[in-house]
Amino acid sequence: MPKNGKVVKRELDDEVTESVKDLLSNEDTCDDSFKKSSLIVNDGPDDKDRDVEEGSDSEEERPAWNSKLQYILAQVGFSVGLGNVWRFPYLCQKNGGGAYLVPYLILLVLIGIPLFFLELAVGQRIRRGSIGVCFFVALYYNVIIGWSLFYFSQSFQQPLPWHECPLVKNKTLTYVEPECEKSSATTYYWYRMALNISDSISESGGLNWKMTLCLLAAWTLVCLAMIKGIQSSGKVMYFSSLFPYVVLICFLVRALLLTGSIDGIRHMFTPKLEIMLEPKVWREAATQVFFALGLGFGGVIAFSSYNKRDNNCHFDAVLVSFINFFTSVLATLVVFAVLGFKANIMNAKCVALNTKKIVGLLDNKIISHDLIPRHINFSHVTPEDYLLMTKIIREVQEDNYAALNLDPCRIEDELNKAVQGTGLAFIAFTEAMTHFPASPFWSVMFFLMLINLGLGSMFGTIEGIITPIVDTFKVRKEFLTVGCCVLAFLIGLIFVQRSGNYFVAMFDDYSATLPLLIVVILENIAVAWVYGIDKFFDDLKDMLGFTPYRFYYYMWKFITPLVLLVLLATTFIQLGMTPPSYSAWKEDLAQETSLSYPTWGLAMCISLVVAAMLPVPVVFILRYFNLLEEGAGGLSTVSYKKGRIIKEEPSPEDEDNASLIHGKSPSEAPSPMPPGKSIYRRQSGAGDSDTAPNGRYGIGYLMADTADTPDTPDTPESDL
Predict the structure, then answer these.
(1) Has 77 been labeled as part of a binding site?
(2) Is 232 annotated as a binding residue?
(3) Is 76 annotated in some ligand binding site?
(4) Listed residue (14, 153, 555) closest to 317, CA to CA
């Protein structure tokens, strides 16, 4: 096809001899980028072909994945995100260790895989994006990537800048920064040096210029990777999806060689079976399953919409779901191994500090030397020695033991300090890495892993925003992607104020959880009850070539809607029982305190919930009253002929695709062609069937139908 923008004319040639196989092979040789093409419609033998100037009324080719591996990596990259590293280990630690894996696996099979399969099938069936809760999530999720970029940039120095508390010098004294001395070096660095956080959400404090630049860099990375859609992001996926696994495995091997790592892993796999029976554990497991797979965001459907219609999406659903689960377990092993190492270090410090207290009590004759076992050497007191001493002292001075102010110094107490989210990544983990040999190297690897995990999820999130808009309004994806990223960066400046961390927590709590639940419930009900589960099963049989297990029939129709409604009800109950609040860092106290949102903050929380769900009723109303038209080319297909792309009018197959959107069965969808007409040229020797030459689910490699045109050989091109 010429690239100089001239008029392209199509020649009707009765001597076309290419086989379907030859035409299929053209797919790989054609340019994968979007191309303009000429439109030809044959209404009858007397109608003339219409020549359409390139770029006027033609449509763009829908891109496709270069390979199945690229698609799987994209789905894995989207579903495996930061939550697998810092949310799942926290829930496992909090809810009974290894016992938490039991309800998680059960709920993964009952609601996770069926709903993930549902979204994959819907995207593959309708071949277009869908409404999801993406934009608000993208706004704050990229801020976390910005934070990781900041720590990544600060990791190229020895010692690491959060290794110890800074010293403050004045004219007469040099002393440790009070805020750091009251907390810890890593805590101080996070809240003061990185965020420079204000005391409350009401105190904006102006922009943090360091984080503003990091946010700009994060959105630039996303924009460059997404500017060509899956053609550009698909190639990045090979690195962004696989690199985190390399880092996690390296971290696991290194952590297992550290002192105390086995204590952490033993703590993880020691089940607390009594906790497993608590309803709260099952609710949190269901929530984690729901969010871990990225359900309701729109990214899963968007990625799946670029698949072939006969792709085995059931296999994809099971594969990606279990990859996600095993990634969470791998990350949990790494986290607990590192936290076991850190717990031993913190416990050793506790023993050393309290041993000094015991020596002071002995010197002041508050306790007797006879209480100290003779084998204990105060120059090197082990945790076991300290526990023995405190046990004896407690038995002898039972009434006065509390007044001695001796800490228990047990490793289990350190491991039970549940840490999640930014507290795990930017405080606990960074503190542990300061004790690693070659700590800058491990810090660089860790934060590069977080960046890649975040980018993988961001690609799916942005695709979930861009795809439905492009599919509906036919705008240029490049311009839309740049505009979306610029707008998101400008709105995201609210998160890089000194109070920005509080807004991140607000958006995470109120723009994602509740709206996502409601969107997926509506999605489930729309497919299983409005469109009809039987018709959807027929669609699946046509796509997959086999009927899915009856298990999914009952899951989609009864179990998953019921579980989701129960989860929604418990979420409302939790919101009602715990008024909206946030954790604020108090500089003078050097600790977090819980504060209630101001009136405008409460209004903003409610607005976030409403705004995140608003696209669903708006689009429903627009489509119900036919205010949002599909457009003439809305469901057109694009075909190849000798390397050229030729646009077709909507075919019956495409009308079938639209039928799911409008709630019709395929048989109810009207045919766009007059009876007896076909947009496919019949092959030489073929019968009168109007079936597409490359099968039920091909994209239609168009050859002009000469059966309805008179034999006029050597017709001059000007007469066409």
Answers:
(1) yes
(2) no
(3) no
(4) 555
